[in-house]
Amino acid sequence: MNASAFHGRLFGAGIAGAGAGARAWWDGSTLVVQTQNELYRADGASLQIEAAGFNLRQLRLSWNAMDGSYTFFVEVDEDRTRLTSGAPDSLRQAFARATAAQRRMGRRFGAAAFVYGAVVALPLLLLLAFLLNIGRLVDWAAEKVPVRYEERIGDLVLAQTRAQMKLIESGPAHEAVTAIGAALTSDSRYRYRWFVADNKEINAFAAPGGVIVVYSGLIAQTARAEELAGVLAHEVAHVEQRHSLKNLMKTAGFSVLLALAIGDWTGTALGNAAGKLTELKFSRDAETDADREGLRLLVDAGIAPHPMADFFAKLADKENGTLPSMLATHPASAERQQRLRAMIAGLPSRQYTPLRFDWAQVRSSLPVAAAGQ
Ligand SMILES: [Zn+2]
Fold first, then answer.
1. Architecture of domain 6-103
2. Per-domain residue ranges for the chain?
3. 334-345 vs 306-317: helix axis angle to the nearest 10?
4. What is the mean pLDDT of residues 335-361?
5. How far is the CA of 363 from the centre of ligand 1 (A)?
6. Quick check: is 50 catalytic?
7. Where exactly are the transmembrane stretches of this chain (predicted)?
């Protein structure tokens, strides 16, 4: 017949529902499709070309003829190659578009393989979740999430934060936060981004992927740079240990992973989940782990650790009625404070060089300090 023929399945007028196996070839710019009984011809200019099927692995060619519409599916790689290579020039662009869509999907699939694996194995995983507990399953899955997915969540949280409050991205306070933050994260696999929010609440939060936001109201409460360093170290520890991501997965479920894996960054499920992320309370265990890891980061950076405990104690001691927002998400029980003090007491004694910042200047540079807070 024709050496450059390709195979596929034809659907259309007069063909049984399951379609007919067919071979096809290009005759100039005309597509010729031959089933067992019939020969069909379609003018190239009338063809619609799309990637189709599960994972977009097929190419779908459809056209309208006098007796109705026809669709021809080509699936196998080899056949697809013959189909596209023999196609008339006028169809090159349409094929390129379909192939690009297939490649994009292929990349998403590659990246998402573990998620789809999880979906297929979902009944088993659910059983496992009941047998063990969901927390451990989430922790296990969270460790498998690529850093770039976390960064996308961080981007979403950052965009939502920008919409809600003004971020101060220069000046003495931002410089201090960035410099201390950099000292704490020099060994990290994350690319940290530091922000000061113009907000009088006493708060700070960390989003997955290394977005850290400190409120000016919190900086106004710090007596010296080391206290701020303690807060930053604690937040960095939450990022490094993926606590926010785990929180997110526990509240919003594995759909978040699916959304991330298929590249649906703007999906409402993910957007909603990211919006609530900064309000989620960390567990007691997560707080203790963040304190421990935060202390380690401080000490490694040569920053005195005691002020960290002082600052959390100061927050918990506040008797002016309102609970600092930070304590709503980072509960500082008496037990946690005792444990933090005990960890510090257990460190080998050493001299720490004080951080070189003009802290009065840092604080007075903030709008909230100027307002007399
Ligand atoms: Zn915390």
1. Roll (2.30)
2. 6-103, 135-370
3. 160
4. 94
5. 23
6. no
7. 109-132
